[in-house]
Amino acid sequence: MKRFKKILGFIFIGLVGLILIAGFWNYPKLTILSGYSAKNMASSVFIGNRSVEFTDSNDNNFAPVHLAEDEVDTNEKSAIASVFGLNQRKAIYREGLGSVLINDGFDIDAPYKKPKRTMLKTNLPFPYGNLPQNDTVFANVDYNKIKSSVATVFDRQDESIKKTRAVIVLYKDQIIEEKYAEGYDKNSVLLGWSMTKSILATNFGILQKQGKINIADRAPIKEWQNDDRKKITINNLLQMNCGLAWDEDYGSISDATTMLYLDEDMTKPQIFKKAIHKPNEFWYYSSGVSNLLSGILRQQFDSYQEYLDFPYREFIDKIGMHSMLIETDMAGNYVGSSYAWGTPRDWAKFGLLYLHRGNWNGEQIFNPEWVDYVTTPTPTSEGDYGGHFWLNSGGFYQDAPRDMYSANGFQGQRVFIIPSKDLVIVRFGLVGDAGVDFNAFLRDINDAIK
Questions:
Q1: Tens-of-pLDDT digits for all 450 residues of the chain?
Q2: SS percent in the chain: helix, strand, coil, step 5
Q3: Please, which residues have CB within 8 angstroms of residue 199's CB and are 6 or more apart in sequence?
Q4: For helices 143-151 and 438-447, angle between their N-to-C axes, nearest 10 degrees
Q5: In terms of C-beta density within 10 A (0-12 exposed, 13-18 middle, 19 or more buried), how is residue 8 classed?
Q6: How large is the C-alpha radius of gyration of the chain?
Q7: Is residue 187 classed as helix, strand or coil in its secondary structure?
Q8: pTM confidence score
Q9: Of 187, 165, 166, 169, the residue nearest 177 (C-alpha)
Q10: CA distances from 309 to 203, 334, 378 (A)
Q11: How many helices, marked H, and strands, marked E, lie in the chain?
């Protein structure tokens, strides 16, 4: 009996040891989990105008984020999250700048600048104004097939697989189908995640039209001037083939998660990475590159206020995307990799701007050649990626037109642009290809237009 108790004691000590070791290795991950939960909660409540309960049961209910517990202070406009009471993180909301995850020492009472917005109202129908659209019945559109195709990407009653929140189909500037899941409507403000990268890139197209930048020029990064990284161009960054090391892994403590949930200045992490390939020889996806580009964008202006105003003044408010908000990091930089919010209809306007090659109701926002640039496949991307847009020239969606390109985001956020069919298709949800057959969806929508 004594020997048996001794064996049980050793087993117990061993289990405790394993738990402690596991805790030691996973403790830093709790910071990322609580950071994600606090940031997403603050943004959902104070930008998306959703409740704490709704956010917990929808946006933050997937493993392992569901382990975090959140508290929201509506007076302070903040959210605090922790996992098992450990690694508490806090996010605060600031008008015009959105929510930001803060570190110890951040002065939440410090004054801050915010973008100047122009809310234009015109007596024009959607998409160019605030009036209802002039509905046209197109003889070449099978409306029943469009409706049934859209329905296939929504969950049936008591189903939670596809988790689609919104879909809009636009043909020749007309909404020919629009559907929302329960709890959402045309005024719901939704996070585009990495669709923000395409918003960011558009600023460079505008600057190039204005003659203020040349994307063929070398990137203006002083830390690179004494080694081979000085050869990296803005074009290499936009095409994500700069050759710099980067770990884009959201299941671990990686370059991407450290940047988004720990770093004060998100424009810097990619700067300090080594070159592991020559520019233009190896494509890989990097959110660090997008935020580095946000830092380069900031360098183009004499004042911080000009940087804040530029995206809204030059195209976002100009095309009526008044619901859109791009969040900033603690250092005041736009998080160009991940954090733009807007209604599905406003995201659809973004798609229409590209469908019309930069022309918005007669005003040329960026040169038509910019669309040619962003839709040119990046070398070694196998036709899947261009200038901060995803492409279908390599046939990723085999039954969709090859000229289709898109802004893509985490959990299946999409703005599909199909020039050959005069189509823009917007989809928002909480799961991507794992739950939605985008290929069949796109095929059926295209087949419905003769």
A1: 555 444 444 444 443 333 333 333 344 678 889 999 999 999 999 999 999 999 999 999 888 888 899 999 999 999 999 998 888 999 999 999 999 999 989 999 999 999 999 988 788 999 999 899 988 999 999 999 999 999 999 999 889 999 999 999 999 999 999 999 999 999 999 999 999 999 999 999 999 999 999 999 999 999 999 999 999 999 999 999 999 999 999 888 899 999 999 999 999 999 999 999 999 999 999 999 999 999 999 999 999 999 999 999 999 999 999 999 999 999 999 999 999 999 999 999 999 999 999 999 999 999 999 999 999 999 999 999 999 999 999 999 999 999 999 999 999 999 999 999 999 999 999 999 999 999 999 999 999 999
A2: 35, 20, 45
A3: 192, 311, 316, 324, 326, 336, 340, 350, 407
A4: 170
A5: exposed
A6: 23
A7: coil
A8: 0.93
A9: 169
A10: 11, 11, 30
A11: 11, 15
Residue with tokens 């936009």: 238
Q: Which two tokens stand for residue 210?
A: 């204005």
Q: Which are the contacts of 217, defined by CB distance < 8 A and separation ≥ 6? A: 233, 234
Q: CA 195, 199, 205 angle in degrees (round to 5)?
A: 140
